[in-house]
Structures
1.
Amino acid sequence: MNLKDIKGIGPKAIIGLNTLGIFNINDLINFYPYRFDILKRTPISELNLVNRVILDGIIESVPNVFFFNKKMNKMTFRMNTGTNLYNVSIFNRAFMKKNLKLGTGIVVIGKYDSQYNMITASDIKIGKLGSKPSIEPVYHTNDKISTKQLRQFIMEALNNSFNIDSLVPRYFMDKYNLLDKNNSLQIIHFPNDIDKLKISINTLKYEEAFLFMLKIQMLKENNLEVGLERKITFNKIESFINSLPFKLTCDQLESIDSIYNDLISKKRMNRLLQGDVGSGKTIVSFIAIYMNYLSGYQSALMAPTEILAVQHYENFKKLFDKFGLRVVLLTGKLSIKEKKIIYQRLNSGQVDVVIGTHALISDNVVYNNLGLVITDEQHRFGVHQRSNLRNKGLMPDVLYMSATPIPRTYALALYGDMDISSIKTMPSGRKSVL
């Protein structure tokens, strides 16, 4: 079924719908309202207390229209609510006069002025309010397609098109109290109950998130890159962990375990390690570097500032000097001579670990066998900068660290192509943890 098959949609309407991004039936029925107006009669006692009043009644006097400033007009009339009479005025709606006849039921939305017993209306709708609140969907429209036309086209499409299958499995629909797709679409476009509307919105949002995560998972499965071959026994790692002057938390140990499994697997690691400042992300990254060293590869850790790079360098040396790891510090402040020496050592394989700033991605830096890339505070580096460092190796594993609090659902949206490890528990003796 095409747009032209919907009753009322002609060539002109199709052009108008296209300007809204609607090109087919699926676009039409999934063109959701961006908000909902709840039309509920304002109690008489509250007319002076609110900025927006909603009253309904019948037209008691013939509307008068006054024109001024050439293109502006004002229409006035009286409305009888059954208990009170109100003066009503509305600007630039002279075209409505033909529909506002004596005795016509209307709903007036606007601001009340008790001094003149006047409602200055922002909108007037034909009809009366029922005993339950009326729910009005509000759409993004333009001068080519009115809300009334759009809703009519959507109604025709829903009543005459195909049956729309729910894309969410029944198990999840039952578990989270979701509706089927057909009902959800009917309710979101033509709501008559607030509670059902909420369920409909939840259903459509859940389906969108569900499909997004399926696509992300598919991309991850299709884009698995073959990683480096590694043979790492966990005994040495365990010995190092036991030698630390502090005890690691369960979250840290779990993150280490995930990184270890990534490194020994056939796929390339692409992991985000997140946790608050002081949660102990750095020691986890150091242990990842040690794993990489045990498998015979170089590591690079890039920090956003020289102060942080120096801090990492000094802490790393304290922990690993006795284990034989050769570590160097590379920053922009080093002299040309000092940099050249480090470049030569990196290229010849005389360095196991390099810690530094943006200097690590300089064109002059050529690694011998870079196997692991770590970026600290990764959100402070641009995508191009991170890619430059990652591409310094043939197939390096990648670990990103971030102290920015990222709820898991939001993290999945931002970093859907990454695996995620979270450190939530603060270590005891927090100041002692690197």
2.
Amino acid sequence: MRKAAAQLDLGKALASGNAPRVMITLPASGGKVQGGQIAVEAKVTDQGGGIGKVEWRVNGVTLGVEPAGRGFQRKTASEQCPSKETGSSFWNFFSRSDPSSDCASAGPSTSSGLEPPLKITRSLTLTPGDNHVTVVAYNAAGYVASIPAEIAITSVQDKSPVRPRMYVLAVGVNDYWDSALHLANAAPDAKAIADGLKRAGSKLYDSVEVTTVLDKDATAANLDRVFTELGGKVRPQDVFVFFLAGHGKTEDARYYFLPYDFRYAGEASIRQLGIDQDRLQGWLLRIKAQKSVALFDTCESGSLVGDRIETRGLEEKTAIDRLVHATGRATLTATSDNRPAIEGYRGHGVFTYTLLAALGEADTSGDGRIDVNELVQYVDDKLPELSYAAFGVRQVPQNVRTNSSFPIVAKTALMAAGGAPYNGSSGVPIPASPTHVVIAPAQVREAANAKSATIVELKPGTQVRLIETANGWTLVARDGKKLGYVQAKSLITLQ
């Protein structure tokens, strides 16, 4: 807490200056437009804190961003209203009952030193029917956001029904370039989620297009290319699901995903080489679907920096909240350190396992479909319960919902009886690369208990792949084939 407060506190945020004032000048609210495109003009007025990033949203989803750096500099309170006793410019700004009165309406002048209002225009894509267009501006420091300017517009489009399409982008990294970061379930989970959503979505959409980006392909450059390609296909009326599995990290309340080629060289490398939330926002801006969900199954890689996971919970929740606020996408995330007991559960990460189960069990309304709220509620209820029963640790998911819910998929049972791993309709192979090494003679048994039959004995130095761990026993595989269960204490992670 002290470290975070030293870098940014409320006093620093207030001292950075007022947020700009935003007004949408064209078109007028309540109007109609023919077609699916509209040009929106806004006026952004500096209130002393300068003008930073400006975000354009349609129905809560961010579809455009004007970058910061337009040259507006913060002015002091006396410079804003030199003829008045101002005191704190921040409190004066919010104490005025009429934001167009006092010095806010004085306009640019040589005595105040404020820049003239900035006029910006953006072409935005609308969905058929009612649309809410919102513009938000930040001060130059990026610490304070304006009160949103909003208009309501009705888009009159072709009345012939067009069934939406579903697009799924599933990213998972097991085999990091740095083998110390190796994971067991991220890539298979991405495959399983992609296949599961394809099966469950085919009953609801005109088509379901799945893109998987795994292991060495999950670099920043390649993900940039993939988002660009999808951006040329996805329409506003389509549904987009983004699944991300691998190592994540939170630094200064900002989220970072570690790509395949990440190399750790101190905490600064996370900020320099990780994929931060600004880049994720930029990629998601290319996706025009106004119904979209982001699912993050990333751990915080506590072993990288040696800090305790308990101390990072609030900071991480803040980072995810900021990411959701910036993108407007409903987001569900579960994070943990990289302990095998949390990552491995019945062949999946425990979070992914719960998601897959939700596709067949979360239909509380009985309408045969799973919507956003039902999915979130199911995972919120079941994940802590399941993780505590299996590992004695409650893994609590983090979720931030948007104002509206929508059906994601049709109800589809994916999990086999008894909770066996879901391997997809075509089967997801077990990767051959090892994750652990045997450090003591290990009896491989048919079941996770000492009374079951012995299959084979593994000698020290034997390399195996961990599939799941529970109650002190670990299911292992070798060369892509399951062997059986060994005691977890006989294994250590490959370095």
